[in-house]
Amino acid sequence: MSLLAEIIYIFLQMLAFAIFLRVILSWFVMGSRSAFLINTYQVLHQLTEPILSPLRRIIPNIGMFDITPIVAFILLQVIGDLIIRFLG
After folding, report:
1. What is the Cα–Cα distance from 11 to 76, expressed in whole angstroms?
2. How far apart are CA 7 and CA 28, in angstroms?
C-alpha cells in the first residue's frame, strides 16, 4: 500500500471515530456540568460538522432521529475502501 493511501485511510478512520464519539457524547453532554465533557464534545462538533452539515441538507430526519452520522460513517468506510483498492 502506498504511503499516501495509508495516510488518507488513517485520516478517514480517525474522522469516522470522531463521528462515533460525537454521537456517544451527545447522549451525555446535555445534562452534564463536566467542563471536560462539554469541551470534548465541542471539539468533536467542530471537527465533524463540515462532514455532517452538507449531508443534513440532503438526508431528512426520520422522525426525531438524525441519521446523517450513520450515513457519514458508511460513506467514510466506502471511500476508505475505494482508496485502498485504487491507490493501495
Report:
1. 10
2. 32
